[in-house]
Protein backbone atom coordinates (compact mmCIF):
# COMPACT_ATOMS: atom_id res chain seq x y z
CA UNK A 1 0.00 0.00 0.00
CA UNK A 2 1.03 3.62 -0.53
CA UNK A 3 1.08 6.50 1.91
CA UNK A 4 -1.64 6.88 4.53
CA UNK A 5 -3.93 9.88 4.08
CA UNK A 6 -6.43 11.12 6.65
CA UNK A 7 -9.16 13.36 5.24
CA UNK A 8 -10.80 15.40 7.98
CA UNK A 9 -14.36 16.02 6.79
CA UNK A 10 -13.76 13.13 4.39
CA UNK A 11 -17.43 12.25 3.93
CA UNK A 12 -18.22 15.64 2.40
CA UNK A 13 -18.30 16.73 -1.24
CA UNK A 14 -14.59 17.34 -1.78
CA UNK A 15 -13.47 14.64 0.67
CA UNK A 16 -15.50 11.91 -1.03
CA UNK A 17 -14.30 12.80 -4.52
CA UNK A 18 -10.70 13.08 -3.36
CA UNK A 19 -10.96 9.70 -1.61
CA UNK A 20 -11.85 8.05 -4.94
CA UNK A 21 -8.83 9.60 -6.67
CA UNK A 22 -6.49 8.66 -3.82
CA UNK A 23 -7.70 5.06 -3.72
CA UNK A 24 -7.10 4.77 -7.47
CA UNK A 25 -3.53 5.95 -6.85
CA UNK A 26 -3.04 3.19 -4.29
CA UNK A 27 -3.01 5.49 -1.29
CA UNK A 28 -4.41 4.19 2.00
CA UNK A 29 -7.34 6.50 2.77
CA UNK A 30 -8.89 7.21 6.17
CA UNK A 31 -12.03 9.31 6.35
CA UNK A 32 -12.55 11.20 9.62
CA UNK A 33 -16.08 12.55 9.90
CA UNK A 34 -19.01 12.81 12.28
CA UNK A 35 -20.66 9.73 10.80
CA UNK A 36 -20.12 7.04 8.18
CA UNK A 37 -21.82 8.07 4.91
CA UNK A 38 -24.64 5.96 3.50
CA UNK A 39 -22.59 5.44 0.33
CA UNK A 40 -19.10 4.39 1.28
CA UNK A 41 -16.17 4.67 -1.10
CA UNK A 42 -14.74 1.21 -1.61
CA UNK A 43 -11.39 0.81 0.07
CA UNK A 44 -11.73 3.81 2.38
CA UNK A 45 -11.52 3.23 6.15
CA UNK A 46 -14.05 5.26 8.07
CA UNK A 47 -13.37 6.79 11.48
CA UNK A 48 -16.29 8.42 13.29
CA UNK A 49 -15.11 11.34 15.33
CA UNK A 50 -15.57 14.97 16.15
CA UNK A 51 -12.91 17.35 14.85
CA UNK A 52 -13.36 19.40 18.02
CA UNK A 53 -12.47 16.47 20.27
CA UNK A 54 -8.68 16.63 20.71
CA UNK A 55 -8.41 13.04 21.85
CA UNK A 56 -10.25 11.59 18.82
CA UNK A 57 -8.18 13.77 16.53
CA UNK A 58 -4.87 12.72 18.10
CA UNK A 59 -5.86 9.08 17.84
CA UNK A 60 -6.85 9.43 14.19
CA UNK A 61 -3.48 11.00 13.36
CA UNK A 62 -1.56 7.92 14.54
CA UNK A 63 0.51 6.45 11.69
CA UNK A 64 -0.73 9.01 9.13
CA UNK A 65 1.58 10.51 6.47
CA UNK A 66 -0.72 13.20 5.05
CA UNK A 67 -3.73 15.09 6.34
CA UNK A 68 -6.24 16.91 4.16
CA UNK A 69 -8.24 19.43 6.20
CA UNK A 70 -11.59 19.45 4.38
CA UNK A 71 -14.17 20.86 6.75
CA UNK A 72 -15.65 24.14 7.77
CA UNK A 73 -18.59 24.65 10.10
CA UNK A 74 -19.56 27.97 8.51
CA UNK A 75 -20.23 28.93 4.88
CA UNK A 76 -20.18 32.26 3.01
CA UNK A 77 -23.94 32.72 3.39
CA UNK A 78 -24.23 32.12 7.16
CA UNK A 79 -20.81 33.27 8.38
CA UNK A 80 -21.85 36.81 9.15
CA UNK A 81 -24.41 35.50 11.64
CA UNK A 82 -22.20 32.66 12.88
CA UNK A 83 -18.93 34.59 12.78
CA UNK A 84 -17.90 33.77 16.35
CA UNK A 85 -18.31 30.06 15.64
CA UNK A 86 -15.81 30.37 12.80
CA UNK A 87 -13.20 32.09 14.94
CA UNK A 88 -13.83 30.28 18.25
CA UNK A 89 -14.23 26.80 16.83
CA UNK A 90 -12.76 26.33 13.32
CA UNK A 91 -9.85 28.75 13.74
CA UNK A 92 -8.81 27.61 17.22
CA UNK A 93 -9.15 23.89 16.50
CA UNK A 94 -7.24 24.15 13.23
CA UNK A 95 -4.46 25.96 15.10
CA UNK A 96 -4.34 23.01 17.53
CA UNK A 97 -4.31 20.59 14.59
CA UNK A 98 -1.32 22.40 13.05
CA UNK A 99 0.70 21.84 16.22
CA UNK A 100 -0.36 18.18 16.37
CA UNK A 101 0.68 17.43 12.80
CA UNK A 102 3.96 19.32 13.14
CA UNK A 103 4.85 17.33 16.28
CA UNK A 104 4.03 14.10 14.45
CA UNK A 105 5.86 15.20 11.27
CA UNK A 106 2.73 14.77 9.15
CA UNK A 107 2.28 16.79 5.96
CA UNK A 108 -0.99 18.68 5.53
CA UNK A 109 -3.05 20.43 2.87
CA UNK A 110 -5.60 22.94 4.17
CA UNK A 111 -8.61 23.60 1.94
CA UNK A 112 -9.08 27.34 1.88
CA UNK A 113 -11.43 29.34 -0.27
CA UNK A 114 -10.24 31.22 -3.33
CA UNK A 115 -13.76 32.47 -3.82
CA UNK A 116 -13.92 34.42 -0.57
CA UNK A 117 -10.40 35.04 0.72
CA UNK A 118 -9.69 37.66 -1.96
CA UNK A 119 -12.92 39.69 -1.89
CA UNK A 120 -13.37 42.42 -4.52
CA UNK A 121 -10.16 42.86 -6.50
CA UNK A 122 -9.29 45.15 -9.41
CA UNK A 123 -6.76 42.92 -11.12
CA UNK A 124 -8.20 39.69 -12.54
CA UNK A 125 -7.43 36.83 -12.76
CA UNK A 126 -6.34 37.18 -9.14
CA UNK A 127 -2.93 35.79 -8.31
CA UNK A 128 -1.87 34.30 -4.97
CA UNK A 129 0.17 37.43 -4.25
CA UNK A 130 -2.85 39.77 -4.29
CA UNK A 131 -3.65 41.38 -0.94
CA UNK A 132 -6.63 39.38 0.41
CA UNK A 133 -9.66 41.48 1.38
CA UNK A 134 -12.40 39.08 2.52
CA UNK A 135 -15.88 40.57 2.50
CA UNK A 136 -17.45 37.87 4.67
CA UNK A 137 -16.36 36.13 7.86
CA UNK A 138 -16.09 32.74 6.17
CA UNK A 139 -13.32 34.15 3.96
CA UNK A 140 -11.72 35.91 6.90
CA UNK A 141 -11.73 32.77 9.07
CA UNK A 142 -9.97 30.99 6.18
CA UNK A 143 -7.46 33.82 5.96
CA UNK A 144 -6.80 33.73 9.74
CA UNK A 145 -6.14 30.00 9.46
CA UNK A 146 -3.90 30.57 6.42
CA UNK A 147 -1.85 33.17 8.29
CA UNK A 148 -1.48 30.86 11.26
CA UNK A 149 -0.27 28.12 8.92
CA UNK A 150 2.26 30.50 7.35
CA UNK A 151 3.51 31.44 10.83
CA UNK A 152 3.90 27.76 11.76
CA UNK A 153 5.64 27.12 8.45
CA UNK A 154 8.11 29.91 9.17
CA UNK A 155 8.73 29.00 12.81
CA UNK A 156 8.82 25.22 12.46
CA UNK A 157 10.34 25.08 8.94
CA UNK A 158 7.38 23.03 7.77
CA UNK A 159 5.45 23.23 4.51
CA UNK A 160 1.76 22.95 5.30
CA UNK A 161 0.09 23.74 1.98
CA UNK A 162 -2.92 25.98 1.39
CA UNK A 163 -5.27 25.20 -1.50
CA UNK A 164 -7.47 28.18 -2.37
CA UNK A 165 -10.23 26.42 -4.27
CA UNK A 166 -12.44 28.56 -6.51
CA UNK A 167 -15.99 27.25 -7.23
CA UNK A 168 -15.97 23.47 -7.58
CA UNK A 169 -18.98 21.62 -8.97
CA UNK A 170 -19.82 18.02 -9.76
CA UNK A 171 -21.04 14.72 -8.33
CA UNK A 172 -21.77 14.67 -4.62
CA UNK A 173 -22.31 18.40 -4.23
CA UNK A 174 -25.27 19.66 -2.20
CA UNK A 175 -26.17 23.31 -2.69
CA UNK A 176 -28.35 23.13 0.45
CA UNK A 177 -25.10 23.34 2.44
CA UNK A 178 -24.76 26.96 1.29
CA UNK A 179 -22.55 26.90 -1.83
CA UNK A 180 -22.86 25.54 -5.36
CA UNK A 181 -24.67 27.60 -7.98
CA UNK A 182 -24.20 25.03 -10.76
CA UNK A 183 -25.45 22.25 -8.49
CA UNK A 184 -28.56 24.29 -7.63
CA UNK A 185 -29.14 25.33 -11.26
CA UNK A 186 -28.97 21.76 -12.60
CA UNK A 187 -31.01 20.12 -9.84
CA UNK A 188 -33.70 22.80 -9.92
CA UNK A 189 -33.91 22.64 -13.70
CA UNK A 190 -34.34 18.87 -13.56
CA UNK A 191 -37.09 19.28 -10.95
CA UNK A 192 -38.66 22.19 -12.89
CA UNK A 193 -38.17 24.51 -9.91
CA UNK A 194 -37.09 28.15 -9.94
CA UNK A 195 -33.37 28.91 -9.68
CA UNK A 196 -32.80 31.77 -7.24
CA UNK A 197 -30.17 34.30 -8.24
CA UNK A 198 -29.19 37.01 -5.76
CA UNK A 199 -28.55 40.13 -7.84
CA UNK A 200 -28.69 40.61 -11.60
CA UNK A 201 -26.96 37.36 -12.55
CA UNK A 202 -23.83 39.13 -13.75
CA UNK A 203 -21.67 38.01 -10.80
CA UNK A 204 -18.71 36.17 -12.23
CA UNK A 205 -17.15 33.08 -10.69
CA UNK A 206 -14.40 30.67 -11.60
CA UNK A 207 -16.10 27.28 -11.82
CA UNK A 208 -13.96 24.15 -11.82
CA UNK A 209 -14.98 20.52 -12.21
CA UNK A 210 -14.42 18.54 -9.01
CA UNK A 211 -12.19 15.95 -10.73
CA UNK A 212 -9.81 18.73 -11.77
CA UNK A 213 -9.67 19.97 -8.15
CA UNK A 214 -8.86 16.43 -6.97
CA UNK A 215 -6.14 15.99 -9.60
CA UNK A 216 -4.58 19.31 -8.56
CA UNK A 217 -4.68 18.26 -4.90
CA UNK A 218 -3.01 14.96 -5.82
CA UNK A 219 -0.13 16.89 -7.36
CA UNK A 220 0.28 18.90 -4.16
CA UNK A 221 0.83 15.73 -2.12
CA UNK A 222 4.28 15.38 -3.64
CA UNK A 223 5.02 19.07 -4.15
CA UNK A 224 8.33 20.15 -2.65
CA UNK A 225 8.80 23.56 -4.24
CA UNK A 226 9.04 27.04 -2.76
CA UNK A 227 5.33 28.03 -2.52
CA UNK A 228 2.83 27.25 0.23
CA UNK A 229 -0.30 28.80 -1.29
CA UNK A 230 -2.03 27.74 -4.52
CA UNK A 231 -5.15 28.82 -6.37
CA UNK A 232 -6.97 25.70 -7.56
CA UNK A 233 -9.09 27.16 -10.32
CA UNK A 234 -9.92 27.17 -14.02
CA UNK A 235 -8.66 30.71 -14.75
CA UNK A 236 -11.95 31.32 -16.60
CA UNK A 237 -14.76 33.62 -15.49
CA UNK A 238 -18.40 32.67 -16.06
CA UNK A 239 -21.45 34.62 -14.94
CA UNK A 240 -24.64 33.05 -13.60
CA UNK A 241 -26.40 34.32 -16.74
CA UNK A 242 -23.76 32.50 -18.84
CA UNK A 243 -24.54 29.28 -16.95
CA UNK A 244 -28.27 29.72 -17.60
CA UNK A 245 -27.53 30.23 -21.32
CA UNK A 246 -25.37 27.10 -21.39
CA UNK A 247 -28.20 25.07 -19.86
CA UNK A 248 -30.51 26.43 -22.56
CA UNK A 249 -27.94 25.45 -25.23
CA UNK A 250 -28.13 21.92 -23.75
CA UNK A 251 -31.84 21.94 -24.56
CA UNK A 252 -32.92 22.47 -20.94
CA UNK A 253 -35.48 24.95 -19.70
CA UNK A 254 -34.13 26.66 -16.58
CA UNK A 255 -36.52 29.04 -14.78
CA UNK A 256 -34.91 31.92 -12.93
CA UNK A 257 -36.04 34.17 -10.10
CA UNK A 258 -33.89 37.25 -9.47
CA UNK A 259 -33.68 38.38 -5.81
CA UNK A 260 -31.92 41.33 -4.14
CA UNK A 261 -28.12 41.21 -4.25
CA UNK A 262 -26.36 40.05 -1.04
CA UNK A 263 -23.47 41.90 0.63
CA UNK A 264 -21.65 38.58 1.19
CA UNK A 265 -21.13 38.05 -2.58
CA UNK A 266 -18.17 39.56 -4.45
CA UNK A 267 -18.92 40.79 -7.98
CA UNK A 268 -16.15 39.03 -9.83
CA UNK A 269 -13.70 36.32 -8.85
CA UNK A 270 -11.44 34.69 -11.40
CA UNK A 271 -8.36 33.03 -10.00
CA UNK A 272 -5.05 32.91 -11.81
CA UNK A 273 -4.07 29.24 -11.94
CA UNK A 274 -0.58 29.69 -13.40
CA UNK A 275 1.13 28.47 -10.24
CA UNK A 276 -0.75 25.18 -9.92
CA UNK A 277 -0.65 24.60 -13.70
CA UNK A 278 3.14 24.80 -13.60
CA UNK A 279 3.07 21.51 -11.66
CA UNK A 280 -0.26 20.06 -12.85
CA UNK A 281 0.20 19.57 -16.55
CA UNK A 282 -3.17 18.09 -17.57
CA UNK A 283 -5.78 20.05 -19.53
CA UNK A 284 -8.83 21.05 -17.48
CA UNK A 285 -12.41 20.08 -18.25
CA UNK A 286 -14.11 23.00 -20.10
CA UNK A 287 -17.25 24.23 -18.37
CA UNK A 288 -19.66 23.12 -21.11
CA UNK A 289 -18.26 19.57 -20.92
CA UNK A 290 -18.36 19.63 -17.13
CA UNK A 291 -21.98 20.78 -17.10
CA UNK A 292 -22.96 18.00 -19.51
CA UNK A 293 -21.03 15.39 -17.51
CA UNK A 294 -22.59 16.44 -14.20
CA UNK A 295 -26.07 16.65 -15.75
CA UNK A 296 -25.73 13.11 -17.13
CA UNK A 297 -24.52 11.90 -13.72
CA UNK A 298 -27.54 13.48 -11.99
CA UNK A 299 -29.92 11.88 -14.48
CA UNK A 300 -28.26 8.51 -14.09
CA UNK A 301 -28.46 8.73 -10.29
CA UNK A 302 -32.05 10.01 -10.55
CA UNK A 303 -31.23 12.96 -8.27
N1 LIG B 1 -17.50 23.20 -1.83
C1 LIG B 1 -16.97 24.37 -2.15
O1 LIG B 1 -17.51 25.11 -3.00
C2 LIG B 1 -15.68 24.82 -1.53
C3 LIG B 1 -14.92 25.82 -2.16
C4 LIG B 1 -13.73 26.24 -1.57
C5 LIG B 1 -13.32 25.68 -0.37
N2 LIG B 1 -14.07 24.72 0.22
C6 LIG B 1 -13.62 24.17 1.52
O2 LIG B 1 -13.32 22.80 1.34
C7 LIG B 1 -13.65 22.09 2.54
C8 LIG B 1 -14.61 20.95 2.20
O3 LIG B 1 -15.75 21.47 1.56
P1 LIG B 1 -16.97 20.54 1.15
O4 LIG B 1 -17.75 21.28 0.15
O5 LIG B 1 -16.48 19.17 0.87
O6 LIG B 1 -17.79 20.55 2.52
P2 LIG B 1 -18.91 19.51 3.00
O7 LIG B 1 -19.80 20.30 3.91
O8 LIG B 1 -19.51 18.79 1.88
O9 LIG B 1 -18.08 18.47 3.86
C9 LIG B 1 -17.58 18.77 5.12
C10 LIG B 1 -17.61 17.50 5.96
O10 LIG B 1 -17.15 17.86 7.26
C11 LIG B 1 -17.89 17.07 8.18
N3 LIG B 1 -17.84 17.72 9.50
C12 LIG B 1 -18.44 18.87 9.89
N4 LIG B 1 -18.20 19.10 11.19
C13 LIG B 1 -17.42 18.08 11.62
C14 LIG B 1 -16.83 17.77 12.87
N5 LIG B 1 -17.02 18.54 13.95
N6 LIG B 1 -16.07 16.66 12.97
C15 LIG B 1 -15.90 15.84 11.90
N7 LIG B 1 -16.43 16.08 10.68
C16 LIG B 1 -17.19 17.19 10.54
C17 LIG B 1 -19.28 17.03 7.62
O11 LIG B 1 -20.01 15.94 8.18
C18 LIG B 1 -19.02 16.90 6.14
O12 LIG B 1 -19.02 15.55 5.73
C19 LIG B 1 -14.24 23.11 3.52
O13 LIG B 1 -13.23 23.57 4.37
C20 LIG B 1 -14.68 24.23 2.61
O14 LIG B 1 -14.67 25.48 3.28
C21 LIG B 1 -15.24 24.27 -0.33
UniProtKB/TrEMBL annotation:
Q: Where is the NAD-dependent epimerase/dehydratase domain?
A: 5-231
What is an example of a Pfam family matching this protein? Epimerase
- The domain of life is Bacteria
Q: Which PANTHER family match?
A: DTDP-D-GLUCOSE 4,6-DEHYDRATASE-RELATED
- Protein family: Belongs to the NAD(P)-dependent epimerase/dehydratase family.
What is the name attached to this protein's record? NAD-dependent epimerase/dehydratase family protein
Q: Could you tell me which species this protein originates from?
A: Roseburia inulinivorans
Record lineage: Bacteria, Bacillati, Bacillota, Clostridia, Lachnospirales
Amino acid sequence: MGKRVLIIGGAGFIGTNLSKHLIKSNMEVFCFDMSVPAKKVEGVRYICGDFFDDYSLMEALEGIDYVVHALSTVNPGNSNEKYLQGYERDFIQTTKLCKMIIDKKIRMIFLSSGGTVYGNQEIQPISEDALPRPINHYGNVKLCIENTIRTFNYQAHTKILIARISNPYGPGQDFNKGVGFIDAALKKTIKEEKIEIWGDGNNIRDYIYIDDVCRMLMVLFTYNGEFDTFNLSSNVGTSQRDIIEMLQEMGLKPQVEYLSARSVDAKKIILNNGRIMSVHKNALIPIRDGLREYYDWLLQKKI
